[in-house]
């Protein structure tokens, strides 16, 4: 029987205008898997802002082929709970990366499990 443990995930952290890594699946065990439970992107300003999120497999790069959320428009005050990331399985070295149209507009937090 495998052990399921909560992982810290990321945040709260504000997004910048260049893709940056929010979470990297630990590389301690090649058989470990990490499941994202919830990812929230909150617009903390009075102006709408787009976000783009990437799931990058180990050794890869953030680009059109790794985009899972493309220019989603987060409204002022909106807390967008991203269904695109729910139940996402990551292997060792995989990352979640994101950017915002305008820096310091979007605050994000995420959590998950190690399985």
The percent of residues in helical segments reads under 10%
The first-to-last residue Cα distance is: 10 Å
Indicate the mean pLDDT.
92
With helices defined by DSSP (H or I, 4 residues minimum), what is the helix count?
0
Largest sheet: 5 strands, antiparallel
Given the helix and strand composition, which structural class is it?
A: mainly beta
Unreliable spans: none
Report strand %: over 45%
The total beta strand count reads 9
Secondary-structure element series = EEEEEEEEE
Question: What integer value in Å does the Rg equal?
Answer: 14 Å
Anisotropy-based shape = globular
Topology (SSEs and partners):
Blueprint: E1 5-14, E2 20-24, E3 33-43, E4 49-56, E5 67-74, E6 79-81, E7 88-91, E8 95-100, E9 106-114
Antiparallel strand pairs: 1-9, 2-8, 3-6, 3-7, 3-9, 4-5, 4-8
Can you walk me through this structure?
- This protein is 0% helix and 56% strand.
- It has 115 residues and is mainly β.
- Strands 1, 3, 6, 7 and 9 form a 5-stranded antiparallel sheet that branches. Strands 2-8-4-5 form a 4-stranded antiparallel sheet, with no helix packed on it.
- The protein starts with a strand and ends with a strand.
- The model has no long low-confidence stretch (mean pLDDT 92).
Report a brief summary of the structure.
The protein has 115 residues and is an all-beta fold. It is 0% helix and 56% strand.
What attributes characterize this protein structure?
single chain, 115 residues, mainly beta, four-stranded antiparallel sheet, globular
């Amino acid at each position: 029987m495998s052990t399921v443990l909560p992982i810290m995930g990321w945040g709260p952290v504000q997004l910048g205008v260049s893709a940056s890594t929010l979470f990297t699946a630990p590389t301690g065990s090649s058989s470990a898997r990490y499941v994202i439970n919830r990812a929230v992107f909150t617009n903390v300003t009075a102006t709408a802002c787009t976000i783009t999120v990437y799931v990058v497999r180990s050794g890869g790069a953030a680009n059109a082929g790794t985009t899972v959320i493309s220019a989603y428009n987060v409204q002022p005050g909106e807390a967008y709970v991203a269904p695109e990331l729910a139940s996402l399985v990551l292997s060792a070295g995989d990352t979640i990366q994101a950017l915002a149209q305008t820096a310091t507009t979007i605050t994000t937090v995420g959590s998950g499990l190690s399985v």
